[in-house]
Design goal:
Layout lengths: L1 H10 L2 E4 L28 E9 L14 E7 L3 H15 L2 E4 L6 E4 L5 H5 L5
Length: 124
């Protein structure tokens, strides 16, 4: 959990946390969107509504910073934000597979990829 939040911060992303961390305020690492009306049109890094799955915990259950994240979900994110966060996460975890809700589009992000270049090939 701590590494995921650190990656969001490193990537300069913001969003709305739909998760709770015991003894920690997620908005410190994932602040809200500073300008919702213009964010998407100005290339902002809004991850939208962010869910983090932790093995053995329900979505509504507070988790600890030292627990491992098993999956990440974004609702209404900016594509560049997802790619920026994914590159920062890949630098910690290795290549990541991104896919849309239907599972029909898949995209691999590797450590060191350039999010801006990836955005040119972003499939959705």
């Amino acid at each position: 959990m701590e590494q995921v939040l650190s990656a969001f911060r490193e990537a300069g992303c913001h969003g709305t946390p739909w998760f709770q961390v015991t003894g920690h305020e997620p908005v410190v690492d994932l602040p809200g969107c500073p300008n919702p009306a213009r964010c998407a049109s100005t290339g902002g890094l809004d991850l939208g509504e962010v869910t983090l799955g932790v093995d053995g915990a329900t979505r509504d259950e507070p988790v600890a910073l030292n627990q491992a994240v098993t999956d990440i979900g974004f609702r209404k994110p900016s594509g560049l934000a997802v790619l920026s966060a994914s590159v920062a996460l890949a630098s910690r975890a290795g290549p990541l597979l991104l896919f849309d809700d239907s599972g029909t589009c898949a995209f691999v992000v590797s450590p060191g990829d350039d999010p801006t270049n990836l955005a040119k090939h972003w499939p959705w």
